[in-house]
From TrEMBL:
Its EC number is 1.1.1.81. It comes from Sphingobium vermicomposti. GO terms for cellular component: cytoplasm. Residues 324-428 form the MOFRL domain. This is Hydroxypyruvate reductase. GO terms for molecular function: glycerate kinase activity; hydroxypyruvate reductase [NAD(P)H] activity. InterPro entries: GK-like_C_sf, GK_N_sf, MOFRL, MOFRL_assoc_dom, MOFRL_protein. Residues 11-251 form the MOFRL-associated domain. It is an enzyme of class 1 (oxidoreductase). Keywords: Oxidoreductase, Pyruvate. Pfam families: DUF4147, MOFRL.
Amino acid sequence: MQTAAAARALLKRIYLEALESVRGERLVASLGVPHGDHWSIRHRGEAIDWPLAPAGRVVVIGAGKAVGSLAKGLETLLGNRISDGCIIVKHGHDERLTRIRQLQAGHPIPDSQGVQATAEMLRTVEALTERDSVIVLLTGGASALMVAPVDGVTLEEKAAVTGMLLRSGASIEEINAVRKRLSRVKGGGLLDQIGPASVLTLMISDIPSGDIGMIGSGPTIPAGEGQEDTLAILTRHGLEQCVPASIRRALAKDVHPAPQAAGRREVLMLADSATLVEAVQGIAAREGLAVREVDTAMAGNTHDAALAMAAALRGVPPGDRPMLLVAAGETTLQVKGDGLGGRNQEYALIAALALAGEGNAALLSAGTDGTDGPTDAAGAFADGALHERARTAGLDPAEMLARNDSYRLFEATGDLFRTGPTGTNVMDLVLGLAV
């Protein structure tokens, strides 16, 4: 029988190795090397021949928690072909870059640094011509980092509605639908700023539905017709009368018409949670582990998802063990307490309570960007002995759960999982081990 420490070490090793496969530099390096005046990009059956004309400029812009890693890969690949660049990253998620300027801003609540950084990024693409090309890098986090409120809405008002939506349990698609309507650069608005230059958008997806128009709220993806009524989103979560009147007025306006494509437009999705799960399967096979996919399009209530994973772990027949169980995606957590934590830590806490007394199962739930909620942890480990560790620390897990205080519980029991910034962001990954 595998010890608890050995099971935890195996989960950690699989998790970190899988993350390496979807780091920005690695993804860019896999696209192919430029030759002469063009870059023949090949990626999972897609082919794009992108011009690098000597007479034109190549400018790199973008935003997101993992965009520094993509920019680092581009600097290695394109070198002095890059004429200028400016990206926006979350505080502490910067990389060592030499040609592309890197500005830091607040996440998940937009701040004044995001406003200033976005203005600088837009200045970088001023006065471009049809001979020029812009490579736009987008990863999860871009919606908060790229900040340019529409006329009539202040930064403070936009920050307030963002915070309300995050606490309400709204999905990332719902939050980003509202963000699009409150921004001058999202929902295709960035194309207006770029003008006649050609635009190549490289993305890492953190959106459960896979809708590319929701990644970073789609700054280079023109908003289409038939979008959901954003006021209805606020109403659904009981927020319509809580937000400032300016927000309601902005959301009630007609959708800005899609900009006319002046230059060539290409979009390439580099990685998503399916890419990560594929890597996990390969690692598990090498480790001699059978794999069961519990939910690789994980969404909805965090507690429901955690209970389903715990039940699946308990239900693995003895003859099928050891087995690795996998879930990936992004759940929604409604925060009502005054504690500290994130959806992955609360997932782990719910699972641990459901696994109480189970000695042959362990679990790791963590955000692939290295952060979970407003904490310094990516997530947490869980097993059936949490109650014992909590009692030793003088804590009651049920009481901590009621306060949404999973971080302080796991900090006391030694179950937090810290990675620091990972250079990628493909939502959350849950690994369960039945031994």
